[in-house]
Design a protein that fits this description.
It is globular and about 40 Å long. The protein is of the alpha+beta class. The chain has six helices and six strands; from the N terminus they run H-H-E-H-E-E-H-E-H-E-E-H.
């Protein structure tokens, strides 16, 4: 990720493409992280574009509180500016939340967002998150959603069109090395 704006909005460090791939590989095998890659489905059919040309961002769920395994910290990034404000982040976040509730037993979500990232704060509030704290040291707002029975029904309703598929590892042709 080389965009200074994106690094600022996501509190991220610049990474080379190889570092990005390595991070994704390590997260895939890590039991306390889930990552969904956000794709532009209009570019995906028939695979007329390279995979990375279809990627517009990602959504992550971190399960790092050993004291409370029902708490998930969620974050979303729509890297391509032309895709922001078009609903990709909202839909990806809803899908990850639904996955967390249905498959991982998550009943509480937290989002830590840079104070200046008003669009992201607004999106999470539209998804029923409430502001619970402001961390002036890290200049971030902490939003939280406790998933009541009513919230669970609403969330599953929002994602009832989604078809879950099992993860399959991409098999590279013989002689092609993974980079």
């Amino acid at each position: 990720m080389q965009s200074e704006e994106l690094q600022r909005l996501t509190a991220s460090e610049p990474l080379s493409l190889e570092q990005e791939y390595e991070m994704q590989r390590s997260w895939r095998d890590d039991a306390d992280k889930c990552t969904f890659i956000v794709l532009d489905t209009e570019r995906w059919p028939g695979q007329t574009h390279a995979d990375e040309d279809c990627m517009v961002g990602d959504v992550n769920l971190f399960l790092t509180d050993a004291e409370d395994p029902t708490l998930g910290e969620i974050e979303v990034m729509i890297a391509e500016p032309s895709y922001r404000g078009r609903g990709f982040g909202k839909e990806a976040t809803l899908m990850m939340m639904s996955y967390g509730v249905r498959n991982l037993g998550i009943t509480k979500f937290e989002a830590k967002i840079g104070q200046e990232n008003e669009a992201s704060i607004c999106m999470f509030k539209k998804l029923h998150f409430k502001e619970v704290a402001v961390n002036s040291v890290f200049q971030e707002v902490i939003l939280r959603l406790d998933v009541s029975d009513e919230e669970r029904r609403w969330l599953l309703e929002q994602t009832n069109h989604v078809k879950e598929k099992s993860y399959t590892e991409l098999k590279l042709p013989a002689g092609v090395l993974e980079t």
